[in-house]
Amino acid sequence: MVDVTIIGCGNLGSALITGLAKAGNHDVTAYDIDESALERVASYCERTTSDIEEAATSEVVVVAVKPDIVETVLESLELSADQTLVTVAAGVPIDFVNAHTDATVVRIMPNLAAETADMAAAVAWDEVDEGVRALLADLGEFVEIDEEHMDVATALNGSGPAFVFYFLQAMKRAAVEEGLDDEDAEVLAAQTVKGAAETVLRSDRSVDELIDAVCSPNGTTIEGMEVLWDSDLEAETGDALAAAARRSRELAEEFEHD
Ligand SMILES: NC(=O)C1=CN([C@@H]2O[C@H](COP(=O)(O)OP(=O)(O)OC[C@H]3O[C@@H](n4cnc5c(N)ncnc54)[C@H](O)[C@@H]3O)[C@@H](O)[C@H]2O)C=CC1
Ligand SMILES: O=C(O)[C@@H]1CCC=N1
């Protein structure tokens, strides 16, 4: 059992807590200044606290507050060199966090699918941290990247779930327009996205080969694919990703000027 504290139990912090509870390999302490946030996660963790000193005793301390609150939290958090501080905040550089703590700093870009242990995460570290590696492995898939690529990771796997939710909803709405029941359409759209993603992760075939495998000659799929290939969807998706990455770089600049 690795002791982990999650500081900030909002959307992301609570997803991490729920996912870790599912895996069962961590002793989790939840800390927040908002009592109602602690109440919402209480059944998924070993303890909740609003005492920062108690929160600071774990081997791994994850700071999951909004980027503009990170500095306040770091200033109240006394960690030692044998502890690890994990930062998840968009745009907050490792150097900034290092300047506020004696702990080893690991920067990750997680996502909301931590809740079901289906998280995609990118991690940047000077040296592999075994405690964080085990935590990430429990929550889904992760890749190691250089910190300079954190902005694009933030856009791809941090913001990415929202982009996929949007696409899923567009598929669902179109099916409802064609007459399908709303709930049935949601189940079919969501399971289709999940299955397609699993297929990409588990298959040796490229995405283009997989598209080809669904497109029967003179069948239905090719008719839809022709519409997508003729559309601006690929360019628009690229623009959405670029806009999110640009915002991550902007946030980082704010920290460099501090
Ligand atoms: N929401 C997402 O999908 C993702 C968020 N992140 C990062 O995670 C961080 C948190 O984002 P969200 O969970 O969406 O925000 P949120 O607003 O849902 O949650 C933040 C939590 O921090 C708490 N908080 C505020 N001040 C605090 C303090 N001084 N001490 C302790 N707790 C405090 C709030 O009460 C709240 O429960 C951000 O830095 C964001 O960039 C990263 C990847 C994905
Ligand atoms: O929108 C945001 O700023 C955070 C970071 C990545 C996902 N949510």
TrEMBL record:
<comment type="similarity">
    <text>Belongs to the pyrroline-5-carboxylate reductase family.</text>
</comment>
<keyword id="KW-0963">Cytoplasm</keyword>
<dbReference type="InterPro" id="IPR029036">
    <property type="entry name" value="P5CR_dimer"/>
</dbReference>
<feature type="binding site">
    <location>
        <begin position="64"/>
        <end position="67"/>
    </location>
    <ligand>
        <name>NADP(+)</name>
    </ligand>
</feature>
<dbReference type="InterPro" id="IPR000304">
    <property type="entry name" value="Pyrroline-COOH_reductase"/>
</dbReference>
<dbReference type="Pfam" id="PF14748">
    <property type="entry name" value="P5CR_dimer"/>
</dbReference>
<feature type="binding site">
    <location>
        <begin position="7"/>
        <end position="12"/>
    </location>
    <ligand>
        <name>NADP(+)</name>
    </ligand>
</feature>
<feature type="domain" description="Pyrroline-5-carboxylate reductase catalytic N-terminal">
    <location>
        <begin position="4"/>
        <end position="91"/>
    </location>
</feature>
<comment type="function">
    <text>Catalyzes the reduction of 1-pyrroline-5-carboxylate (PCA) to L-proline.</text>
</comment>
<dbReference type="Pfam" id="PF03807">
    <property type="entry name" value="F420_oxidored"/>
</dbReference>
<dbReference type="GO" id="GO:0055129">
    <property type="term" value="P:L-proline biosynthetic process"/>
</dbReference>
<keyword id="KW-0521">NADP</keyword>
<dbReference type="InterPro" id="IPR028939">
    <property type="entry name" value="P5C_Rdtase_cat_N"/>
</dbReference>
<feature type="domain" description="Pyrroline-5-carboxylate reductase dimerisation">
    <location>
        <begin position="147"/>
        <end position="251"/>
    </location>
</feature>
<comment type="pathway">
    <text>Amino-acid biosynthesis; L-proline biosynthesis; L-proline from L-glutamate 5-semialdehyde: step 1/1.</text>
</comment>
<keyword id="KW-0028">Amino-acid biosynthesis</keyword>
<keyword id="KW-0560">Oxidoreductase</keyword>
<dbReference type="InterPro" id="IPR036291">
    <property type="entry name" value="NAD(P)-bd_dom_sf"/>
</dbReference>
<dbReference type="InterPro" id="IPR008927">
    <property type="entry name" value="6-PGluconate_DH-like_C_sf"/>
</dbReference>
<keyword id="KW-0641">Proline biosynthesis</keyword>
<protein>
    <recommendedName>
        <fullName>Pyrroline-5-carboxylate reductase</fullName>
        <ecNumber>1.5.1.2</ecNumber>
    </recommendedName>
</protein>
<dbReference type="GO" id="GO:0005737">
    <property type="term" value="C:cytoplasm"/>
</dbReference>
<dbReference type="GO" id="GO:0004735">
    <property type="term" value="F:pyrroline-5-carboxylate reductase activity"/>
</dbReference>
